[in-house]
Design goal:
Length: about 575
Amino acid sequence: MSVQQAEPEGPWSLEYATPPDRPGPRNRARRGWPQTRDELTDMLTPLLVDPDAASAAEALQRRLAAMDPPVRHHSIHLIVSGLPLENEARARALARCLVRTGRSVQSVCVGLALLIRLGEPQDVPNLETLGLLRDLVRPVIHTLDTIDRRTAALIHLRNRAGKPELGRLRGALDAGDDADVRERLVALPRTIGPEDARRAAEAAELVRLLELDEAVAGPSGRAGAPHVRAPELVAQAAWLLFQMTCVRDSSPEILSYREAVRAYESLARGAARHLAPTLDHYALLLSAAQELSSGAGVLHDWGGPGRREAVVSELLAVLDRPAWRTAVDREGVPGSVRRRTEWARRARRQLARGPAGPVEGLRIEVAERDPLEPGTVEARIVADGRPLVPAVFGRGAVHSPEWLLDSGRLRATEEPREVELAEAYCSEGCCGALYVTIRRVGGEVVWSDWRCPPPPPSALHVREIPELRFDAAAYDAEIRRAENDHTWTWPARKAARLIVAGLRDRPELLTRWGVELSWAGTAFNDMDQTVLSLRYAGEDGSATYFMWRIQEDGTLPEDRAADALRRLASEDPRTYGA
């Protein structure tokens, strides 16, 4: 029977959930993670060294079938990834036997998990076939990511039925027409998510397309005639890289993009040759420079000192051309354009002051994302030249400067203090958070006793993080500098910070009304609006949240903050908060 015939419910894609006729696990007894781990480990360990792969596979399938409820793919992957492989050849033979003859999702997933560690190019055809089965799409993609990243990306695109533009790109790729691939890649809308952006770049071989244009143009950019859509391809490359750096609802996909270094280098060269000085292009190149100065992109293997710094310098050299400066010097423009140009000027000034290369010790870089795609404002922590949070956590953005700097949380005293540096993009209750204990020991500041486990019974990997030591005098100077550097902020955000500072000095302004401050900042969809979230606890134990919104009106942030504090002193915020 063909693979297609094995799918009686018809074609499937990643857009769909589990098949509608499959019973859920609600009425089944739950098995805890430790029990699942121990059972599967005991089951697999002797079979991995069995010289008869066929009999080992048959025994494993019988035992897996007896497990109720069935083990999930994610748990299988985590358990298998930690098993010792004393005989890789026998373990590989077992994996291939399971992949080819497995009769259940669980047994095939054990084979796939083993091939993540042991797979070879000859396994790709079988994996492509398994990728046609709905329950195996994700596991197959995860396995192919370690063997053939482009094939994994092609399977991903094929299974995005809800994104027709990705389907058209896949069709061009299947036809092997570079010109059509280029057209479809350039036509991708800016609504696709970070993983789709990475997979599209991998499947279309973005770097190869960019380098083809460079080869035609020659070193000077004058020889030959590059493709007529070279400027659009360079701009789209900049946007795809920008999207891969988003951490609002996902891990930073840029860390999974193996061609990132070459892509950034091609972008810098292509921008100098092809891009027109528009605000959109300015913002995209600035975002790339920002990422390569303190973001996750720094963590790639840049092959030696100076290579990443050279890319940053090339990008900034383009932005410093007179025509490009004009793109962000306009005044009297509409709201969204004004906010973007103001952000661009602020971010460019920050990059002009800060070093792009490795710096010993601690460095705090406040990074605000392009307001065209609002995201968090991060107080990025760079330790010895490496962005700390994406390196050791990777499941969410660094906390805001208000949380880490305005509060004084990063200050070091002899009394140890535990500080939350980041929270998972979903929530701490789902995928955890990153904590460190900060204390002063003699002439050093020590960051130790890291905590980043997700809450039990999650099976997410717990990473061991080494202790960090910084020179105390240099540490204190950097924290003072970061706490007093407000150049990154804008009027509505500054008003929020001033209100919070006032409430910190005068807590009675809220306690008299029985309310407390939940958070303060600016509206996600309107950066010109200061928002205070106030929590009121009722006598019955219930809680009510009030949102107080203060629109920017052209007055100074200091005046708006003072007016807000005066109003809190005389009026119950529950009467004017929504």
